[in-house]
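Review form for a predicted model. The reviewer records the input and the model, then writes brief findings.
Reviewer: anonymous (R2)
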Amino acid sequence: MHAVNIGLLLVAMLAAGGCASHSAQVRPSPDDTQLFAASGVQASDAVALAEDKPLGDAYALPRPDEDAVIVEEDLALIYGSAAAWDPWEKQNRRVHRFNLVIDAHVLRPLARAYVRVVLTPVRTGITRIFRNLGEPANAFNHVVQGHPGHSLASLCRFVLNTTLGIGGIFDPATRMGLRRREEDVGQTLGTWGWRRSRYLVLPLLGPRTVRDTLSLVVDQRLSPLHYVKDGATVIALQSLEVVDGRAQLAAFDDAREDVYDDYAFVRDAWSQRRVHQIDGDAPSE
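Model under review:
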């Protein structure tokens, strides 16, 4: 019995000694308190820091939702007036995630295989063909925007590249001084005054606005592919155009890997580019 009492007494003494030691370790000395005061740190926060407890509100880390707000504010400062009008963000993010899955499992592998298999000169020729097919739409939009000279240049480019350039594989029009100026119905509506339009992410088609989505119908009718009667040929050409376009975007894949919010990055970058197309690239007679 005496042995048990002695053992309990030793345990109590050790526990008391440990608590006293811990208290001495976590409580700042007078010198430490003066140092914290000189640094602008409250004494309570100094004790909390020593005891590994949460600090005061002034030293609390921002919550994830606060981080998102900070990022949005930074993007607004960067892009300024090009910031997107995105009231449907919740639904758009869902479609964006769906598109990312399709891109990761279908489009990106196809684009990488396309780059590995098809030689660079051939890919360049394919890109030129599809750009040449867009010249009639460029000509239409230039004329309705009030730039008949650029409209005539687009038509001349189409004729020269289709004939001398063998369907657009080569680009003799550029060597003749006929510069390519790309326009679409969405840009035309923007120059007519429909400046602000709701941001919209479409399945498979990606970022758009309501204005640009409505213009897709007219753009498709202006394309020579619309008048090809063989459905299989149209599907094959459109699929090749999508893969070729995705291959050209491969250079941005690494940059998107490091962004904080891929949805916000794509939305704001796309919106900035769209504003530049309407304003910065507006041709002058």
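Findings: The first strand starts at residue 199 and ends at 202.
Further findings: Residues 66-280 form one domain.
Recommendation: see findings above.
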